[in-house]
């Protein structure tokens, strides 16, 4: 009897589990055919890969945005790179001659990244609802508007920074670009707030949003890839090059306000005129160097002014920029001269301690220091014209970030505190009006004397 | 998980099959032992395989299943979000669903408390006289509107009737009198109070105290009244305590179709009252206007900054007219609210616009001025590409062709450095002095009230030296100062494209408004084609003025210019009069002339090099100040300029109000 019941149980179990198995198989097949019915049937023929979730998600997203007139453009570094490599081929493939293979949008990955200029987005609220009706599950990440940050008394509606819309297992990451003063686009930091489901998508794998970023406003072009019409930056190469160096730091407006509460701002006419002239000079220098394609950053007093008080220090009397010596171009001098800034003096040479100084309008001087890289530090040189004495200013190694200053986009050292503390010591927060460039900086080291035979070359005064 | 339901359906099918199989198997297996063994192991193996395959399938389908079930979720999320936006339920609304309301009325103090929370308290001296009205949401107990009508003064009862009529049926109304509320409470208002079920309201007498709680269109929930015993004394203070039963949220809301717009409307209407038909259940007034787009709109991408304070009803009216103007682009509009007021933000949200709140800095005029500065700076930060910004205030009606007017004239600001601004407002453009909507002027004064600011002017000149908070300056007075204006001029239309309707305000009161703003002409014609816009440029305008003066007929200077007969009863002529103006800043005669013409006379406005242009009796009327104006040479030698003396000091003062 017990044997029979054992058998019975065994058979019963087998039968139910096979029934279960059959049902699951049936359901699974059923699910697949309904979920991607059209995609599957169409691509069954010669086309390969078009049934992928990625491709379907992208297709639906593009349908959605084009029907709502939302001008999104593709910024996904992986795909842009692929497109860039096969650019000729992509360009030649017209819409009609459909490709047989899904090459770009079907590469396995978790996200496809698009971007959008916020001011061109007319119907955000409605768009969101339509997306959800289409089956997208969307996450919106908002934050306060950094453009209102420096006016502490303003509090506005939050602005959207990122949308992440998931369809099946693939997510579309929509980076919302905002226009900033200085004609560039800014995107925010993707910060997960408390209530957000951290498992919604693998956030760590996102290509954008780890830091805020700044980009040149890209011109766009329409292309057809994998049977989909998408907008991409006209110069994908340039955009791709910008990505790794796009990190943006906001000026510390709160600390700057605190600074001005402690040390009242200088609002005399002289201070205001100096600031105006310095601002114009900085903008002119930025324009000139950008045209040459030379990387530069705010250095010394100008950098301190930015970091400490978000403005130009009115008694600094000049503006200072830094350039890596490897970025030096011989036509820098002539470019500045063409821009109306004659060379005032040139110290050192390309191999050692190069420093250029240009005479701006209205008695404001533009100093450009060239930075030399050693294994564990960076340095720039100084030269005393009278004595031919050389000085060396040491800095810890740093990388470059974007920021906004005097309505323009500038680079600054990302490790700003370290940079400033090297140059001005721990007490940089306290304004000091008397400053001897040969003695005051804690990072200055004597570096010998130029041999008299070289003076003609390394000390040029105009 | 709904999709799993089919499984019970399958079971009976399996079970039926199973029985017959079992019987055959049992028979066979008892006979063949080895085979039975084999089958047993086979079954166990099969079970194992099934388990593995099952696990794999479960893993595979889990994502798909969650996908399927999540399709339902967004709706829920949205409802949750809506729930959160609604005002928190009051304590009393829990199981009890009753509010206890206390209303106090007396000579010097009124207060209203709902569930122990004071929602109104006024014991300030010389303030808040009249009938205080509070509207509560009948479902939540949330305060939706708070008003005071000084029915001791004339016309305030009309405003009260207007307001009470707008309140939706079913709302809880609370009234209480402070000091005196009956002197100008007319029959219409009394009849309305009677229709609300009030006993004492219609019989309210001199210096009576009165407290009332009732439901609009429903029962009275409590009322107390105390008669004043004598003319010189007040009624005894009354304290009314009553319970107000709450109704369900369902009843309190209208059943509008579920659209994006109605969602905004519902949010708005559940919070505030007193905006008329926007919250009407049956036929709500639209909140989206979609006016015709402007062909070739040059100001489509010009940001519009609306400067607002805490006058939400004004803001509502203003935004309605702004959003109805042809060529408006709502995403360019930002409303800057001076202070953390909720109701103006609600109005902004109703129209789906961007609103920014500003912590007040300083006091009075300096507060306004700091608010302006923050707003302008923020505008250019938010729209870094913009070369201009349109600056509006919350108490302006905007003409239907406001943007068309700007679109046709804005190139002047780009091309002519001698311009300071373009303004939609003509200080001298009253009903009886403005005529031609296609005509523009150049004036040396800055009118404000709907104007365009050049970014470079703001960023390079104004922002760096904007008056600091401790200087209690008016921003507009400061902008008119010669140090700022530096001889530049503004373009204005003859017929204004904005209308100043604000009666309450920092520098504004009813009498002042009546005298100087009410009769202002306001263009209502859409799509006016401006005439000869390029003749407004610096040099071209001189040519134009000379041409005008040359063809103008000189008026009879022996007549009194204040008499109506000073201008002949013609139409379409151009006339010129010469008045005495010794120096550039001698406006004695002009001020007197302005007074008797009943136009702006509080300071000098609308002049261009000693010339004023306006319309009288449909004739273009030019006034030239001699000899200060360079146009004095057009004066025929025989004409003696008119001289009007300013009245003796004691009669003077800012008193054009007396004239009307």
Automatic annotation (TrEMBL), chain A:
Ribitol-5-phosphate transferase FKTN N-terminal domain mapped to chain residues: 1-279
Coiled-coil ranges (or none): none
GO MF, one example: transferase activity
Matches recorded under Pfam families: FKTN_N, LicD
GO CC terms, sorted: Golgi membrane
One Gene Ontology biological process: glycoprotein metabolic process
InterPro entries listed in its UniProt record: FKTN/MNN4/W02B3.4-1, FKTN_N, LicD/FKTN/FKRP_NTP_transf
Annotated ranges, domain LicD/FKTN/FKRP nucleotidyltransferase: 290-330
Localization per Swiss-Prot or TrEMBL: Membrane
Transmembrane segments: 7-28
Keywords: Membrane, Transferase, Transmembrane, Transmembrane helix
Membrane topology: Single-pass membrane protein
Family: Belongs to the LicD transferase family.
Protein's recorded name: Ribitol-5-phosphate transferase
Source species of the chain: Odocoileus virginianus (White-tailed deer)
Upper taxonomic lineage: Eukaryota, Metazoa, Chordata, Craniata, Vertebrata
From TrEMBL, chain B:
UniProt record, GO biological process: protein O-linked glycosylation via N-acetyl-galactosamine
Superkingdom, natural source: Eukaryota
UniProt keyword annotations, A-Z: Disulfide bond, Glycosyltransferase, Golgi apparatus, Lectin, Manganese, Membrane, Metal-binding, Phosphoprotein, Signal-anchor, Transferase, Transmembrane, Transmembrane helix
Binding note for cofactor: The manganese ion interacts primarily with the substrate UDP-N-acetylglucosamine.
Enzyme class: transferase
Gene Ontology annotations for the cellular component aspect, listed alphabetically: Golgi membrane
Any GO molecular function: beta-1,3-galactosyl-O-glycosyl-glycoprotein beta-1,3-N-acetylglucosaminyltransferase activity
Principal location class: Golgi
Pathway where this protein functions: Protein modification; protein glycosylation
EC annotation from Swiss-Prot or TrEMBL: 2.4.1.-
Annotated segments matching region Disordered: 69-96, 637-660
Cellular compartment(s): Golgi apparatus membrane
Compositional bias per record (Acidic residues), positions renumbered to this chain: 69-80
Reaction equations catalysed: 3-O-(alpha-D-mannosyl)-L-threonyl-[protein] + UDP-N-acetyl-alpha-D-glucosamine = 3-O-(N-acetyl-beta-D-glucosaminyl-(1->2)-alpha-D-mannosyl)-L-threonyl-[protein] + UDP + H(+)
Keyword Protein biosynthesis included in the entry's annotation: no
Reported cofactor(s): Mn(2+)
Function, in words: Participates in O-mannosyl glycosylation by catalyzing the addition of N-acetylglucosamine to O-linked mannose on glycoproteins. Catalyzes the synthesis of the GlcNAc(beta1-2)Man(alpha1-)O-Ser/Thr moiety on alpha-dystroglycan and other O-mannosylated proteins, providing the necessary basis for the addition of further carbohydrate moieties. Is specific for alpha linked terminal mannose.
Entry remark concerning the domains of this protein: The stem domain mediates specific interaction with beta-linked N-acetylglucosamine moieties of O-glycosylated proteins. It also interacts with its product, N-acetyl-beta-D-glucosaminyl-(1->2)-O-alpha-D-mannosylprotein.
Subunit-structure text: Interacts with DAG1 (via O-linked mannose moiety). Interacts (via transmembrane domain) with FKTN; the interaction is direct and is required for normal location in Golgi membranes.
Similarity comment text for this entry: Belongs to the glycosyltransferase 13 family.
Protein name: Protein O-linked-mannose beta-1,2-N-acetylglucosaminyltransferase
């Amino acid at each position: 009897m017990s044997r029979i019941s054992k058998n019975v149980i065994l058979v019963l179990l087998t039968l139910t589990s096979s029934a279960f198995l059959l049902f699951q198989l049936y359901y699974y097949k059923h699910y697949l055919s309904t979920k991607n019915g059209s995609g599957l049937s169409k691509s069954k023929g010669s086309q390969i890969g078009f049934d992928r979730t990625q491709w379907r998600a992208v297709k639906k997203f593009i349908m959605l945005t084009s029907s709502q007139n939302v001008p999104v453009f593709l910024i996904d570094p992986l795909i842009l790179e692929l497109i860039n490599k096969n650019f000729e081929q992509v360009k030649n493939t017209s819409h009609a001659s459909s490709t047989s293979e899904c090459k770009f949008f079907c590469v396995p990955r978790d996200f496809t990244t698009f971007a959008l200029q916020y001011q061109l987005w007319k119907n955000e609220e409605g768009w969101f609802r339509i997306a959800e009706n289409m089956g997208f599950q969307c996450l919106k990440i908002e934050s306060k508007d950094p453009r209102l940050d420096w006016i502490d008394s303003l509090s506005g509606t939050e602005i959207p920074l990122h949308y992440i819309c998931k369809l099946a297992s693939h997510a579309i990451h929509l980076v919302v670009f905002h226009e900033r003063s200085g004609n560039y686009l800014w995107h925010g930091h993707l910060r997960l707030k408390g209530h957000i489901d951290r498992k919604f998508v693998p956030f760590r794998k996102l290509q954008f949003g780890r830091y805020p970023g700044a980009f040149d406003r890209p011109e766009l072009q329409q292309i057809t890839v994998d049977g989909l019409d998408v907008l991409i930056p006209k110069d994908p190469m340039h955009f791709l090059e910008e990505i790794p160096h796009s990190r943006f730091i906001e000026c510390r407006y709160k600390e700057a306000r605190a600074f001005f509460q402690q040390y009242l701002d200088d609002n005399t006419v002289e201070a205001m005129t100096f600031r105006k002239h310095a601002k114009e000079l900085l903008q002119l220098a930025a324009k000139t160097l950008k045209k040459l394609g030379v990387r530069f950053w705010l250095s010394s007093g100008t950098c301190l002014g930015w970091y400490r008080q978000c403005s130009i220090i009115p008694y600094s009397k000049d503006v200072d920029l830094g350039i890596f010596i490897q970025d030096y171009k011989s036509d820098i001098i002539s470019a500045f001269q063409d821009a109306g800034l004659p060379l005032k003096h040139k110290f050192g040479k390309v191999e050692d301690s190069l420093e250029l100084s240009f005479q701006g309008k209205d008695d404001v001087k533009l100093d450009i220091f060239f930075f030399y890289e050693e294994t564990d530090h960076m340095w720039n040189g100084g030269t005393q014209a009278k004595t031919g004495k050389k000085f060396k200013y040491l800095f810890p190694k740093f990388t470059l970030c974007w920021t906004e200053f005097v309505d323009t986009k500038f680079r600054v050292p990302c490790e700003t505190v370290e940079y400033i503390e090297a140059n001005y010591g721990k007490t940089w927060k306290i304004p000091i009006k008397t400053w001897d460039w040969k003695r005051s900086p804690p990072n200055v080291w004597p570096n010998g004397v130029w041999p008299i035979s070289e003076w003609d070359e390394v000390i040029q005064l105009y | 998980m709904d999709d799993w339901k089919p499984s019970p359906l399958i079971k009976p099918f399996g079970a039926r099959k199973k029985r017959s199989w079992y019987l055959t198997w049992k028979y066979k297996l008892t006979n063949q032992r080895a085979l039975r063994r084999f089958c047993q192991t086979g079954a166990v193996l099969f079970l194992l395989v099934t388990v593995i395959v099952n696990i794999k399938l479960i893993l595979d389908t889990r994502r798909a299943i969650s996908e399927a079930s999540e399709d339902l979720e967004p709706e829920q999320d949205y409802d949750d979000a809506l729930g959160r936006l609604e005002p928190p339920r009051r304590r009393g609304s829990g199981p009890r669903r009753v509010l206890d309301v206390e209303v106090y009325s007396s000579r010097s103090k009124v207060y209203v408390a709902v569930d122990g929370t004071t929602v109104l308290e006024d014991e300030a001296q010389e303030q808040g006289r009249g009938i205080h009205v509070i509207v509560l949401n009948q479902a939540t107990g949330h305060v939706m509107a708070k008003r005071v009508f000084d029915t001791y003064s004339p016309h305030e009862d009309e405003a009260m009737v207007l307001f009470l009529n707008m309140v939706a049926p079913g709302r809880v109304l609370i009234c209480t009198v402070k000091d005196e509320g009956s002197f100008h409470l007319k029959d219409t208002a009394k009849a309305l109070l009677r229709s609300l079920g009030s006993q004492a309201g219609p019989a309210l007498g001199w210096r009576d105290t009165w407290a009332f709680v009732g439901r609009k269109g429903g029962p009275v929930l409590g009322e107390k009244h105390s008669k004043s015993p004598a003319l010189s004394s007040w009624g005894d203070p009354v304290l009314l305590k009553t319970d107000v039963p709450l109704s369900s949220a369902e009843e309190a809301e209208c059943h509008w179709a579920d659209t994006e717009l109605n969602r905004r409307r519902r949010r708005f209407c559940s919070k505030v009252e007193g905006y008329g038909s926007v919250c009407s259940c049956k036929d709500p007034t639209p909140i989206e206007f979609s006016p015709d787009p402007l062909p070739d709109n040059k100001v489509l991408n010009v940001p519009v900054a609306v400067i607002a304070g805490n006058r939400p009803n004004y803001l509502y009216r203003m935004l309605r007219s702004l959003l109805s103007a042809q060529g408006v682009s709502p995403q360019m509009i930002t409303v800057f609210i001076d202070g953390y007021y909720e109701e103006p933000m609600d109005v902004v949200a109703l129209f789906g616009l961007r609103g920014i709140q500003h912590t007040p800095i300083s006091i009075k005029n300096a507060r306004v001025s700091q608010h302006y500065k923050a707003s302008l700076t923020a505008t250019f930060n938010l729209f870094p590409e913009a070369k201009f910004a349109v600056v509006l205030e919350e108490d302006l009606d905007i003409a239907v062709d406001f943007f068309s007017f700007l679109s046709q004239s804005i190139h002047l600001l780009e091309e002519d450095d001698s311009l300071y601004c373009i303004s939609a407002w003509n200080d001298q453009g009253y009903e009886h002095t403005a005529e031609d909507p296609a005509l523009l002027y150049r004036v040396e004064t800055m009118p404000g009230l709907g104007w365009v600011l050049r970014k470079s002017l703001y960023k390079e000149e104004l922002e760096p030296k904007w008056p600091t908070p401790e200087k209690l300056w008016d921003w507009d007075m400061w902008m008119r100062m010669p140090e700022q204006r530096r001889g530049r001029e503004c373009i204005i239309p003859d017929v204004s494209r904005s209308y100043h309707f604000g009666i309450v305000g920092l520098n504004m009161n009813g009498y002042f408004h009546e005298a100087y703003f009410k009769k202002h002409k306001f263009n209502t014609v859409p799509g006016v084609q401006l005439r000869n816009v390029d003749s407004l440029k610096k040099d071209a305008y001189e040519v134009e003025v000379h041409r005008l003066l040359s063809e103008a007929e000189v008026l009879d200077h022996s007549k009194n210019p204040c008499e109506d007969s000073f201008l002949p009863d013609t139409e379409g002529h151009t006339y010129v009069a010469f008045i005495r103006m010794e120096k550039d800043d001698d406006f004695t005669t002009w001020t007197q002339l302005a007074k008797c013409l009943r136009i702006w006379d509080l300071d000098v406005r609308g002049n261009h090099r000693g010339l004023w242009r306006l319309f009288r009796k449909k004739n273009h009327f030019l006034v030239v100040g001699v000899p200060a104006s360079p146009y004095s040479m057009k004066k025929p030698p025989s004409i003696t300029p008119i001289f009007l003396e300013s009245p003796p000091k004691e009669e003077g003062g800012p008193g054009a109000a007396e004239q009307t």
